[in-house]
Every structure is written in structure tokens, then in C-alpha cells.
Amino acid sequence: MTSPTRGSLPDLSKYDEDEPAAEATLMFEAAVVAPRGKQVPSLVVTSGASTLGMIFILRGEMLLGRSAGCDVLLSEQDVSRKHATLAVRPDGRVDVVDLDSSNGVFHREKRVKSVTLGEGDKLRIGRATLTVVLMDDVGEVVQRNHLVVTTRDPATGLHGRRHFRDMLGSELGDIPRLHPAALVCFSVDAFETIVDASGRATADDVIRRLGIVASEVVSSEDAIVALIADDEVALLLPGRTQAEALVTAEWIRSSMGAFAAPPIGVSAGIAMSTDEGIETTDALLTSAWRALRFAQASGGGQLCTWASLCAENSTAPPRPSKTRRPV
Fold first, then answer.
1. Rounded to whole angstroms, how far apart are CA atoms 200 and 29?
2. Which end of the chain, N or C, is more open, meaning fewer C-beta atoms within 10 Å of its C-beta?
3. What gap in Å lies between CA 121 and CA 194, rounded to an integer?
4. pLDDT tens, 165-197?
5. Core vs surface per residue 128-166: b (16+ CB within 10 A) or e
6. Closest CA to 121 of 94, 98, 139
7. Element holding 247 (H helix, E strand)
8. 135 near 57, Cβ under 8 Å?
9. Cα 130 from Cα 122, distance rounded (Å)
10. Confidence of residue 64 (pLDDT cuts 50, 70, 90)
């Protein structure tokens, strides 16, 4: 096989120009001018985190942590996957219980196993400081709109680039090889042809379907499915071997092939955090992306691994670029 023509990596920096502090200001202004409703307790990230300005409406019992399945999601490396539980009392106060997290829960600069918080009380978890505030019920609408803008693609409903980048760092840390994981990049073959023949809405439906299939196949709460380009979906599989990732990717590709007539072709590229040359999360994503490009250049409808590309080049395995970032 000949190597594919090396194209430009997806430039996602232009989607991250939002200032979190500005977003928080807008959310508070929206809540102030809206009609007053029932007051509900909320947690606001007020300092020290990439999620600065995020508002979490609290109802019933909720889970706080950095796992993708948490109700209050803090994508920071010093936050445990399941860090603490939150329970709202009838009087609006919030009970917080530490789930034996690595870095603990702090209130008034003291580490606590459990604590009850009222309006204005602060909680420190890792580098993040969260403040309890009472907000009108309308704040929930503001929060939902904010979450759609910052974490999900509006056309497909899939998690977007920013969320994927944050979660990739949270799951794998600064040294990916210490946290075995598989990263699969999928692309719909002939995406532009679908757009030209049936319209952009139909093409978005195909990508949405790809995301749904990937989500249904993966049962692990730590797995992450996200849209990283118009026609590309990424799937992070923490703790999976390459053999397991190959089975998962092939099942997803086969399912998409049966989705419509004529069949929809899907190419895939896989990289492992333990592969040679993978020293950063950027390198991991770049390697999976290049394996995907090789699969496409080989005729499409195929699956390629970064390890196989390295093995074919016996003199000097191709190293992922450290200067160009896909996310």
C-alpha cells in the first residue's frame, strides 16, 4: 500500500474562542431579567477550573465527578471519576458526601467526609471552587441552553470538540501510556456526495446515526462519543485492548452499512495510548486521525490501526506530529 496524501488536521481552535467568565455573566444576566419562579439550589463553578462559570441545577440525589456519566461533571484531572454524592433537602440545603475520593472534599479549607451546605457556602474539589446559590427555575432553561452551546453539536446532538478535548485529558492525564485506552476515529465515506445528493440535513442524520450506533455499542460509562469534524466521529474506549477496539469498530461499521440502501460506507482509524510514539493526548488523536486517513486513501470502507502503519515502516515508525493539533 502507498501512503495517503497527508491532508491538514482538523483545526478546532476556532470553536473555543468563548470566554467562560463571559458566558457566566450572560447566564446570570439572563436569570436576573427573567420572570421569577421557584427558587432551586444550584452549584456554580466560581474559580479554578476549565468549567469556570458552569451552573448545575441540583435536584434529588446527584453524582459529582469527572466520569462522563456524572450529573455534575468536572473535567479536571484532580477530580475522581466518582468523587461525591449530592442530595437536596426539602429546605433547599445540600448534603455532600465524599466517595473516598483521592483528593477529597474541602469546606472552609478543611477536608470533610460529609457536609451540609446552604446558600453562599463554598466547596472545593481539586482546583475547582463551587458556590451554592439559589436560582429561579428559569435558570434550568439557561443552563440547558448553555450546555447545548458548549458541549454538544446543535445539528447532530453529539458531544462537541471542546467536551471531547476536556474529557480526553481528564481520562488519560498528561502521560497517556500510563492509562491504557483505545481511540477510534470514524468517517462517513462520500460524505460530500450525500450532502450534494440529499442535502445537509440528511448528511447530519447519517452522522447522528453513527453517533447513536457507537453509543449503543459501548456500555462503559467512561467511554466518550463526540463529533470532531463535519463527517468524523471519535470514540474513546478507556481500558480497552486493541483487539477489543477492533471488534467494536468493525461492529459499528457493519451496523452503519446496513443502515440504508445503498449501504453507507464508514472508514475507521485506531490508535492506542500505549502505541509507540504516543506521548501526549494530542499525539494519540493525531495518530488515530492519520490511521483513518490511510483507510480512506486505501479505498474507503476499511479499518486501519496506527500500530500497523508503524509496523509497515520498519526503518523508522512514523511519529505523530506535535505541532499540529486536531483538538
1. 35
2. N
3. 53
4. 777 877 777 777 788 899 999 999 888 888 888
5. bbbbbbebbebbbebbeebeeebbbbeebebbbbbbbbb
6. 94
7. helix 242-257
8. yes
9. 6
10. very high
